[in-house]
């Protein structure tokens, strides 16, 4: 697990200070490689490329985590908004938010995740 002092400033701002990267700027918003997305801080497996979809928002979007046991969903009312925050259960990193506007045929959830909090462990196609 990386220590906070070892994190790049953008990762620290997002993961530890609950920031958000600008849309269409993260390294994974338009990625199409196959693999598993892990937490950039602790390496916990979070999302599969099999559940990634283009939400048109400019952030990596997934229909579900690899395992719900790997994330914590918390009420987030910051900025006067009503949202559900997604947090890495292992290290407490803020990952993004989950919304109820995902593909209905896949459960209707959209896990909107900051690229800065993810590392893609590629698999062979």
Automatic annotation (TrEMBL):
The keyword Oxidoreductase applies. This is peptide-methionine (R)-S-oxide reductase. The keyword Zinc applies. InterPro entries: Met_Sox_Rdtase_MsrB, Met_Sox_Rdtase_MsrB_dom, Mss4-like_sf. It comes from Candidatus Wolfebacteria bacterium GW2011_GWE2_44_13. Residues 1-123 form the MsrB domain. It catalyses: L-methionyl-[protein] + [thioredoxin]-disulfide + H2O = L-methionyl-(R)-S-oxide-[protein] + [thioredoxin]-dithiol. Belongs to the MsrB Met sulfoxide reductase family. Pfam families: SelR. GO terms for molecular function: metal ion binding; peptide-methionine (R)-S-oxide reductase activity.
């Amino acid at each position: 697990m990386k220590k906070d002092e070892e994190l790049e400033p953008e990762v620290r701002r997002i993961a530890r200070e609950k920031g958000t990267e600008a849309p269409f700027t993260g390294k994974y918003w338009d990625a199409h490689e196959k693999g598993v997305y892990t937490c950039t801080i602790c390496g916990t497996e979070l999302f599969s490329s099999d559940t990634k979809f283009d939400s048109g928002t400019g952030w990596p979007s997934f229909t579900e985590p690899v395992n719900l046991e790997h994330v914590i969903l918390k009420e987030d009312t910051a900025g006067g908004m009503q949202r559900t925050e997604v947090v890495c259960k292992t290290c407490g990193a803020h990952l993004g938010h989950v919304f109820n506007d995902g593909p209905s045929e896949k459960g209707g959830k959209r896990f909107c995740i900051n690229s800065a909090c993810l590392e893609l462990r590629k698999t062979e196609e």
